Amino acid sequence: MKLNKIxxxxxxxxxxxxxxxxxxxxxxTTGQMQGDVYTGTDTVEYLASGVPDRVFFATNExxxxxxxxxxxxxxxxxxxxxSEITIVLEGHADERGTREYNLALGERRANAAKDYxxxxxxxxxxxxxxxxxxxRPVDSGSNPLAWSKNRRSVTVKAN
Amino acid sequence: xxxxxxxxxxxxxxxxALALIEVDITRGNLNPLPIAVSxxxxxxxxxxxxxxxxxxxxxGSEISLIVEKNLKTSGLFNPLNKDAFLQAPDxxxxxxxxxxxxxxxxxxxxxxKVKFQNEKxxxxxxxxxxxxxxxxxxxxxxxxxSNWRRVGHIITDKVYERLTGEKGYFDTRIIYxxxxxxxxxxxxxxxxxxxxxSNNKFLxxxxxxxxxxxxxxxxxxxxxxxxxxxxxxxxxxxxxxGMQEVVGDFPGMTFAPRFSPDGKxxxxxxxxxxxxxxxxxxxxxRIVEKITNHPSIDTxxxxxxxxxxxxxxxxxxxxxQIYIMKSDGTKVKRISFGKGLYGTPVWSPRGxxxxxxxxxxxxxxxxxxxxxxxxxxxxxxxxxxxAPSWSPNGRVLIFYRETKTNDKxxxxxxxxxxxxxxxxxxxLVTTPTDASDPSWSSLLSN
Lengths: 159, 446
Prior knowledge:
Distance between the termini of chain A: 21 Å
Radius of gyration of chain A: 16 Å
Helix content of chain A: 40-55%
Number of strands of chain B: 31
Strand content of chain B: 35-45%
Number of domains of chain A: 1
Radius of gyration of chain B: 23 Å
CATH class of chain A: Alpha Beta
Distance between the termini of chain B: 18 Å
Shape of chain A: globular
CATH superfamily of the largest domain in chain B: TolB, C-terminal domain
CATH superfamily of chain A: OmpA-like domain
Oligomer: heterodimer
Number of strands of chain A: 8
Helix content of chain B: 10-25%
Largest sheet of chain A: 4 strands, mixed
Mean pLDDT of chain B: 93
Shape of chain B: globular
Number of helices of chain A: 4
Structural class of chain A: alpha+beta
CATH class of the largest domain in chain B: Mainly Beta
Mean pLDDT of chain A: 86
Low-confidence stretches of chain B: 1-6
Largest sheet of chain B: 7 strands, mixed
Largest interface: A-B, 31 and 48 residues
């Protein structure tokens, strides 16, 4: 898994370099973001091989992107295979919003992930939701890339 | 804590004064009133007694320093340098030589006397109009010696009220969240301090995340959000006894709590299935009422001082805006229409204004608007700041501000700041640790 991550990072760096040389006017962060949704893997951990633990959101949004839905389908398949596992969906927001609104937004994001897992056959009994708002960023930076990593819903094994 | 409930005995010595000096508080602090705060005089016997009890060399000077610092912080007064005072404190308190005080350009003068009497602290003070050569006010207090700081705050409140025509805000406390540790794993504790930053005390240990404490306007109770056992719920804390209890134990997250103006209800958000709605709970009979009913986020509710209306934050228009409604949830009306996003509306204790946080083009502002949304005024702009709380007289806002980190994610800090309604007199409120989510108490005494 570690190796996997290192390889991925190495790939990303190469990719970022390519992107830079291909389009010198673009900012170097664009290699890891699409619009303002994070598409990198720096912060991603894995629930099982090939099953990423988190999905990312656009600013102020709780709509799942195509990539997020793919990640959640992988999670659903893994959960169906491991029917004893229960999970907590931890919803987060970036630091660019008021604390209380972000708590609500984190809850809405985690529920977007929950709803999607449920449509793929995961019972709501196995899922709980916990919003942290902006209280637990993964990246302490004050820049658009850091904020994109922090706008997330993370699936955490609860048992 | 216990000394809060010990009553101050306050009595008027004599007042034969007319309102001669007046401080204009409608504008900024362009011309703060020059005022001389003479050290309160003290006899040798009392001095020794207080020194043994309070470990202060001269309690008279200490109390006058509190008054001086308060007046300076208000931005409306300019306390003059004591080195220039010509008259001794004891004599000045009997009868000031107004020419001497006039000479150093003082327009007002505070004198007083401290005495140890029947195991109690007795303080008298007088406020003088230097130009007219008249006494404006004279009061005396008796209280337990440990209350000496509060005596300084009460004197300031009386002077402030006499000279501005409005109640003061100095004998008050601030509850806030003390923060420590890296940004990604912040440790947060409830903390309380006097309005001037002294008597800081931590109320929780930091084992669980705590957020958004708010005072009950009628007592020393606090409502806040705690992540105890990883269940974010609204709690009630009695700061006199330390007793805590959960009040928002709903099947989901409860957050953004505030008291109703009469202190009998808590209004808060309850989030479930991706939807946050506003609810109230009656603290006596625990009856819960749902106030909003909309699939968008409805949060940050705050009552009008008469309890008839609620302002709140909703993204029902697509983005965060400020709304008001009747306290039963009817007649919902959007009031913020400027450019940008609006959050954290808080109704002024005077009832005429709503303070808010605004995000526009990557900057955060603290501002105020009238309750119909007109007359928006932005008081301060920064990288990040939010959550204003009103001083009990509605003159000052306290809020918190966070700094931008560098490329390595270093350099984060969170601090409390205050600013006058005029947009002037912005000040850092010093706290022993980083701090956020301040809430201002009502006046402890009147």
